[in-house]
Structures are given as structure tokens and as C-alpha cells.
Amino acid sequence: MNFSTPTLIVNKTITLNNLDKMINVANKNNLILRPHFKTHQSIEVGNWFKEKGVGSITVSSITMAEFFSSEWNDITIAFPLNILEIGKLNLMIKENRVKLLIDSISSLKALDNQLEGPAEVYLKIDVGYNRAGLKVDEKQKIKSIINFCKTSDKISFLGFLAHFGDSYKSKNKMEIKNVFQKSIERIKVLSDGFPNFRISIGDTPTCSTIKKYPDFINEIRPGNFIFYDLAQYKIGSCEIDDIAIRMICPVVSIYEEREEVLIYGGSVHFSKDRLTENESDIFGYVYFGEVWDVSNKIGYIKSLSQEHGVVKLEKQISLKIGDKLNVIPVHSCLAVDKMGAFYESGKRVEIMK
Amino acid sequence: MNFSTPTLIVNKTITLNNLDKMINVANKNNLILRPHFKTHQSIEVGNWFKEKGVGSITVSSITMAEFFSSEWNDITIAFPLNILEIGKLNLMIKENRVKLLIDSISSLKALDNQLEGPAEVYLKIDVGYNRAGLKVDEKQKIKSIINFCKTSDKISFLGFLAHFGDSYKSKNKMEIKNVFQKSIERIKVLSDGFPNFRISIGDTPTCSTIKKYPDFINEIRPGNFIFYDLAQYKIGSCEIDDIAIRMICPVVSIYEEREEVLIYGGSVHFSKDRLTENESDIFGYVYFGEVWDVSNKIGYIKSLSQEHGVVKLEKQISLKIGDKLNVIPVHSCLAVDKMGAFYESGKRVEIMK
User: Fold this and answer.
1) Of the candidates B172, B192, B221, which is a domain's last residue?
2) Domain for residue A18, yes or no?
3) Does the residue B32 lie in any domain?
4) Are B213 and B245 part of one and the same domain?
5) Do A151 and A246 share a domain, yes or no?
6) Which residue of chain B has the CA closest to A264?
7) Among residues 112-131 of chain B, which lie with CB inside 8 Å of chain A?
8) C-alpha dist (Å) from residue A102 to A85, A309, B230
9) Does residue B1 carry a pLDDT above 90?
């Protein structure tokens, strides 16, 4: 392929290897693997999961549920119900089985009020990330939600769904394990207090690290693991050669004095997600040569404008204008979302529009 | 309109007012206004400029030049030439007049080698931002570029193009003026050394602040000023009520204890651009009530995930699930790019695909 503009490419072999490892963890622990599809947003990559026997998925919006409902009929929308989209939900529940997420009694009542068919809900539990959900010690609120569902003739209460988001602040496997331990203890309190309900957990850092799960966990929902990225590598979720995605960027200028290179590749391609290394911002690791060879790191992206990326070179290398560099993005989910498509073995793969 | 998902809206009255002010500055100083269209990326908003008599534009990629070439025939591509796209350029120069940007002799030679028709080039000058361009004291390099163009039968040398990117680090009008002064002194050295060439400058902070330009400046290229955003407000480029863009986001959950609200609106809508205020990250100012009324600020977005935004409330306010909040985004260019469309007076306006 002749990639003359910034282009995202995916390595299917690495992707399938990441998938096999996650399926293995799920199988050994008797867990349902319900991967989060917000990372790839593509029917084609979804089919790679299907071929491996995965039957249920997670999405992050009602729009994304609609998109995947052409191919999947067991979809959990792991985002608190947006009641304004009840019209779309009512259309979907007639044909497919979507599982909804609520995190308050008012949202549940609004749902019950406007729902035109049966629906299953999870209650979102906040184990310390302070983003969404009820805390495990808000027992009265949890009880009234469960009780409300019992009296509803449309809504069934499935159980509890949590996201151990603090794992994203980890710097190594030990810290990931600590987050898992701390979070799972809170979930256990819940499970003890409200037994016999399903419990769904799972983010890429913990699911890539934890090999043994307690029996009260029913399913895991990692997403990013399918491609991984630089952020996951720095967290400790994966090795550098587990990363299945690259942005190919043309060199447009070379500044020998400041040992920097300008690439065509900016925030409209990568997003502005960044890491810090030795007090420098890092927007991607930069490689030259064979695309999937991780031995050829030549520097990192130190700044991004809308279309410009400035690469700081870390080694002497002979480059010329028009060369193509391979960049490992900081955040694969956002790079995929930004690009709207990627290439696998030279074939263009479209994502959700 | 019933905006049930995150939706970007634009206020045409404010937009035109911003445009009028910029036209006024250009006219008073006898400058060509060559606005940067990467902010809105839309044919429709482009027409608003046309109706005000603007005849020349700036874009940030060859793809964007192609997009606007259906309507515009004087387009400067203010991004160093990506020689890998020479095929597209050769098609465009046959029908339209695009002005190119180069910042090295090697890129110029590659262009001369592969060009199939006449082209005009600007030399990119780096006045201290260290992103792209030659420094004003690299006289030998500048001379050889000008001389090369003299001998080329295809390429004409137009002059110098600079971007005073340091203005984006300003915190008030005085700092913006200082950046302008420092940068303009460097440009003057260039103008004295290489007279009779055109000089193109201009970014939103300086163009929104500087009222009097030296005679050796020929044109200005601001872009963001058409909508402005929170970043520009904090820099000192505009007042808060000059901002012509909002993201409408549904409330999906309310956490009274921590005085926070969860909105449907995340990094796939806003991008991850952020500001810092009192040591907190800010991803947008949040308002409730009449959309363009800036007296009703209720808080700010403190964190963004892919679809989630967590709003920190700053005042007691009675909100319910399904309410819609109005958010001033940190970076309008990236929010527009992310969203792919916006609404003006209830009408959907598509941007470049």
C-alpha cells in the first residue's frame, strides 16, 4: 500500500494472539468474556471475536449498540442510561437483547416509565474511581433499585457492573494487582450483601494481569487489550510487542540542529492523549524500518498540533523527506475513533460512522 | 431540535461579529485576510466569509485544499509540503491556484522534480516556536531557496510565511503583544535582508489583539477566531461571549454527595485538550439554561473518558436526569473535527470527511 497521508494499520496476528490470551484467562476462570468494542468499533474485527467463539459484547453508547446490533444479539451498553435516547432503545429491544446500565433510582423510574418492552439492567457500582455508579455501602439505594425492579413488569435486575478505573493509574503489574485486590474486596462486600446476582467487572490492565478470579465474578469486559497501546505498555498491561497498531506518518521536514523531525500526523490523527517520561510529554513512540519490529525505536513525538507532529530523535539516523515513520500511539481507542478506518493486510477496514 | 446525544452548535450572529472585527483589522492595515479554514472545515461557513468579501483562504493539508478547491481558487496550504501527495497536487494545480509551503531545499528540489505545472511557494519561517521552518538567521539556506526558485521554470517564490505559535502560551493581552513584538522584530530582519517578498503571518491570539501592523506585513491567517473557544478566552484573545460554539450534553447521572454530574460527552466529542485552573484540569465550562447566556456557569468538566464527562458543580442547582447542559469546549477546532458536523439555527452543517 502507498500510504501518503497518516494511516492507521493493524496487525491481525498480534491482535488474535491478544485475543487468545484473554479467552484463555476467561475460560480458566469460568468467566464470560464480554469484550468492549469501543476500541475497534468495527464489524470486521468483531468477526475475529466471533470466529473464536465470543458471543456477547460491550459497547459504550446506544449508537454503538445500534451499529453492532446488525451482527450481535447480546450487547451490554456499559454507560449509564441516557434517557433522551429511549426512542432508539425501544426500537432495539424489539429485535435484540441489549442489557442496560443504570446508576440511580430516578433513571430507573424514567426507564420504566418510557420503556415499551422488556429490558434487563445492571446497576453500576463505583469501587473508588468516582466516575459513575453507587458506592457499595449505599445499601439502601441499592436495595430500593433491586426492589423497584422486582415490582416492574418490564425491567429485570441482572446484577452489578463495575469498572476498576483506578488500574489506569498503575505503573507496573504490582500496582495493577493492588488496585484489583482493593476493588475486589469492595465487590465482595456487595456480593455477600446481595448474593445470587451477576457481577461484571473488567478493564484491560487488570484483565491482562490477573490470572485467578474469585468465584463470585461472572464476566469480564476488557476492550483495549485487543490492540493495546503505549499507555497500556506503560501501565504494565502488556509487552511492547503485544501492541497491534501503528500510525504510519510521512516525514515532511528534518531539523538536524535540534535533532527533530516534522511528521504529517497531528492531534486530528492521534488525539491529544499523552504520557510523561523524564518530565517530557510523549504522544507516541517512533520507529523506522520494518513496521512491527520494535527494536528500531528512533525517538518519540514531543508535541502535536492539528496536523503537525514534532519527533524528538534519540539516535543518529539517516532520514529523508518522504520517508515513513511508524508510531505507536498513546491511546489506540482514540486513534481509531479519530481515523475512522484502519488497514489490515492492505485492506481498508471501516469503523462505525 | 431534539439533541439527545452530544451535539455541537454554532451561533451565526456571534460568528459573523467575530468575522466583521477581523475584516476591520485587516482593512485598516491594508492586509489581505486569508483565514485558516481548519477550524470550521465547512463549505457553508466558508460561504459566510465569501459573502463578506473574503477571497483567499488557508488550509492545513492537501486533502483540505482538495475539499475547498470546489469553491475557492486561492488556497494556501500552510503545512510543509508532503511530497508523497504530489499526485494530488499535480491534479489540483491544473485547475486551481494553490500556494505551497516548503521549509527546506530538499523538499523544494523534490517538488521541482515531480511537479507537472507551475506552482507558487512560500518559505516557512520559524520565529521561535520550534515547530517548522527555517530561522531568520539561516540566511544561506534562505538565499539558496530563493535562488533555486529563480532558476526553476515551474516554481515561483512568493515570500515568507510565519506562525507566531508562542502566542498560545500567553495568559493576557500584554503577553500576546510581547510575543507579537518579539516575533515581528525577527520578521523585520528578514524583510530588511530579503525585501520585496510577501510576508504572511497571523494566529488568532495576535490577530485578535494587535490593531496596528507594520507596513512590511502583507496578510494575516487567523482561523480559530471565527468561533473562538475556552483556550482563546484564557489566553486573552476574546471575551467569553465572543465564543460562538457549544456542545450540548445530556445529564445521565447526578452525584449529590460529591457535587458532581455525569454527562454524555467524552473525549470522542471534545478531544482531550485541557486547561488548568487552580491546579485542576478543565475540559470545558458548563452552563445551564439559555444556551448563549454566559451568566449561568454552573461548573466545569473535570475529567473525560471516551464517552463520559464528569462535571464538577460550583453552585447549588436543581438538575434532573435528561437535562441538557451547554459546554464551552477548550478547543473548538478539535471539537469540530471530532464531531464531523454541527448545527446552526437547527440546520445540520457537514464538515470535510
Assistant:
1) B221
2) no
3) no
4) no
5) no
6) B82
7) 130-131
8) 14, 41, 32
9) no
DSSP H or E segment with residue A148: helix A139-151
Nearest CA in chain B to A61: B307
- Contact list, B321 vs chain A (CB under 8 Å): 83, 104, 106-107, 110
If one counts the domains in chain B, the total is: 2
Cell, residue A78: 456499559
- B76 and B191 share a domain? yes
Q: Determine, for residues B131 and A322 on separate chains, whether the beta-carbon distance falls below 8 Å.
A: no
- Collapsing DSSP to helix, strand or coil, A53 comes out as coil
Chain B residue numbers touching A306 (CB-CB < 8 A): 38, 60, 333-334, 337
The answer to whether residues A70 and A140 belong to one domain is yes
Q: Which of A174, A189, A221 is the last residue of a domain?
A: A221
Determine the Cα–Cα distance for residues A185 and A182; give it in Å rounded to an integer.
5
Residues 6+ apart with CB under 8 A from A353: A340
**Residues A275 and A127 reside in one and the same domain:** no
Distance from the A311 Cα atom to the nearest Cα atom in chain B, whole angstroms: 10
Domain range enclosing A290: 240-350
Beta bridge pairs of residue A149: none
ipTM of the shown complex: 0.94
pLDDT < 70 positions in chain A: 1
Do residue A252 and residue A340 come from a single domain?
Answer: yes
Nearest CA in chain A to B304: A131
Interface contacts A/B by beta carbons within 8 Å? 146
Q: Which residues contact A264 (CB under 8 A, 6 or more apart)?
A: A5, A6, A249, A250, A252, A307, A308, A309, B61, B79, B82
> What's chain A's Rg over C-alpha atoms?
22
Strand ranges inside A222-315, DSSP E: 245-255, 260-264, 275-277, 280-282, 284-287, 297-304, 308-313
Interface probe, candidates A41, A131, A140, chain B, greatest B C-beta count within 10 A: A131
Residue A1 touches partner B, C-beta closer than 8 Å: no
What CA–CA distance (Å, rounded) separates B156 from B146? 9
Please tell me what DSSP assigns to residue A36.
B
**String of b and e for B84-105 (b: at least 16 CB within 10 Å)?**
bbbebbeebbeebbbbbbbbbe
What number of helices (H) and strands (E) belong to chain A?
A: 11, 20
Residues of A with CB below 8 A from B110's CB?
321-322
Is B12 among the domain residues? Answer: no
Same domain as A168, residue A83: yes
Q: Which residues of B touch A5 (CB under 8 A)?
A: 61-63, 82, 84-85
Q: Please report the pLDDT score of residue B2 as a whole number.
A: 74
Tell me, yes or no, whether B65 and B208 share the same domain: yes
DSSP secondary structure string for all residues of A61-123: SHHHHHHHTTT-SEEEEEEE--GGGHHHHHHHHHHSEEEEEE-SHHHHHHHHHH--S-EEEEE
Rounded average pLDDT over B54-82? 96
What is the dihedral sign for C-alpha A124, A126, A132, A137? positive
Do A253 and B104 make contact, defined as CB atoms within 8 angstroms? yes
Task: Check: CB of residue A229 under 8 Å from CB of residue A328.
Answer: yes
- 3-state SS assignment for residue A328: strand
- Helices A43-51 and A12-28 sit at what angle, rounded to 10 degrees? 50
- Return the CATH number at A214: 3.20.20.10
Q: What is the pLDDT of residues A169-225, one digit of tens each?
A: 999 999 999 999 999 999 999 999 999 999 999 999 999 999 999 999 999 999 999
The DSSP 8-state label assigned to residue B36 in this structure reads B
CATH number of the domain to which A334 belongs: 2.40.37.20
pTM listed for this prediction: 0.95
Residue B71 lies in a domain: yes
The pLDDT assigned to A95 comes to 73
